[in-house]
Amino acid sequence: MKKITFLVAALCATMFASAAETTITTCDFTAKTAKSQSYNSEWSYGADWTLFGAANNNGGWAFMKFGGKNTTLATANPCWAKNATEIASPITKITVTTNEGNLTPAGSTVDVWGVLVYSDASRTTLIDSVVGGTMTKQVAESLDLLPTNGKSWPASSYYTVFFKMSNPSTTNGIAWIDAIAFKYDDTVTALGQVTSMSVYANNGTIYGAENGRIYTILGMDVTEQNGNLNGIYVVKVGNKTQKIAVK
To answer: How many domains does the chain have?
Structure first.
């Protein structure tokens, strides 16, 4: 019996020693893979990424600014970055790193941001959506997006990291982003850590969201419409999110 116990302990020690978080791929804006100065166009950033509503001053900045001035934002909002080719590995975390100049324009805000995850390149089949946390004004920080199932997004998925913003000023550049990293941690999938919420829907109403916010899958805040909802929504309470269907 002691031998079996020691063997199990040894196997567990080996498993956790080998477990590690690995960065699968990164949309690295510090590398200046491509250049643009337009805040209302779609363009390719290298071979693997497509951007909309973002610019790096034709390569003059080693970061990317998402969101233009007030008139531009009226026609280009939300802004986004998406992978042009599938990410073959499962992903357990997306880390968005902001630049220290984040939210520089007076009165600008990132109202809702997050990721939409699809199973197909045409982005017609949504499999998950996650809303991110609050961004701090003019501070460099790393903010994580985690799957709603608490484990991972499946291999061969497509991601759209979006930023829906407000800007009353005539200054371009709201969300200043250094990089978007896609990571895999085998500890998470091995242990099957699950984050759950007590949220349910009935007759157009989401219950359990009293201390949180309700968003559409495109990031629109519809909390005040609770009671008259119909469709797929994302509920965020604290640092937890859950997708829910309402009829």
So the answer is: 2
